[in-house]
Amino acid sequence: MPPAARTARPAHRCTECGYASAKWVGRCPECQAWGSLSEVGTVPAGGLRAVSAGAVTAPARPIAQVELSGARAVPTGIPEFDRVLGGGLVPGAVLLVAGEPGVGKSTLLLEVAHRVAESNGPALVVSGEESAGQVRLRAERIGALHDQLYLAAETELSAVLAHVEQVQPTLLVLDSVQTVRSPAVDGTDGGATQVRAVASALSAVAKSRGMTTILVGHVTKDGAIAGPRTLEHLVDVVISFDGERHSTLRLVRATKNRFGPADEIGCFEIGDAGVVGVPDPSHLFVSRRSAPVPGSCVTVTMEGSRPLLAEVQALVAPSGGGGSPRRAVSGLDAQRVAMVNAVLERRGGVRLAEADVFAASVGGVKITEPAADLALALAIASAARDMPLPAGMIAVGEVGLSGEIRRVGGTGRRLAEAARQGYRVALVPEDAGQAPKGMRLIEVPDLGAALARLT
Fold first, then answer.
1. Which residues are annotated as a binding site?
2. What are the binding residues for ATP?
3. At the top level of CATH, which class does the domain 284-454 belong to?
């Protein structure tokens, strides 16, 4: 058949990751999402056409001659937020901040815009969810009023771009990207097509103007960022804002960062004065009591380059019978807790098969790294035997399936932080290094040697 006689085939694109396919399939081969492919147009059946060389935007230069002035981070004046960003806001960068409703995203970003307006020129906050009066009331409450801080309430992309042309800001905060629509694109408000179009347009404007842009995004019921997965690929930095409603603690993490580390954490407390950074948050994750109690052990976790003391608590109670014993976990990895339970019963002689086991972290912190395995095992064994651990002792180490205690990274910084907080004894794996001043290390090669410390 001649090429002219070939007909065009319908094209389908995944609304989650952007994967394109010539035919519809029930499950996306790229992101494995079900029912996410929708028809978006047609593609020629003849395949790709040859592309000739065109004009370039700027000539290629030796890498040593590329200027760095426009790529250096500018501190915001909020140390905890700058730690997560890798030093501050980079001109032209696009950030996506996501979190549950009411967690404090808008309050923190309003304070960021206020600090930028004070030190680095005009800042523009565009709210699509609240009126300008509501945002003004919040700004008065946290003391974020400034002549260089501009505020607008818009839901049309064209109006947002008009405000950018008028104000010429160094920082744009859009709250939120799901509430803004582009009239040039079909699709429901807040849908995948609209969100992708709005984010793409604002990203192009940010790059061309050297304007830092912060987009606030919604999250789904399971905590994932709402909208298409391509939204996370369009931006330079993805930040998650976590916190529980009944707690004043807020944790800010960077899950993607093109300008710095993607594993740092910032700690904040929310109150009447807004969101305030907590430079030394270890005391938030450790209980203060006069005497040791069974089922409690302190460990040191690493969040990026920051060591944090965290307490692991466990409760072992006789099962009521009539079914499988209960296993409840809060703030810990459920799979690792199940593994530690199995190792304790098989290698440590702790009977848990007929008991309910509850394990949790203190202060709402989420502990996922293996360095907390030893502390978790000691807490469960302490609760099962109703014997408290000695006061002033911490435990750091990974528990293997054969019961051995393995070394973990950053042991020196972990122990130094524990010594600074007043802990004097540490259970560690073999060859853990030199003890900090005022601390005694007890090396335990396996779980049996660690459990012997209970007696």
1. 99-106
2. 99-106
3. alpha beta
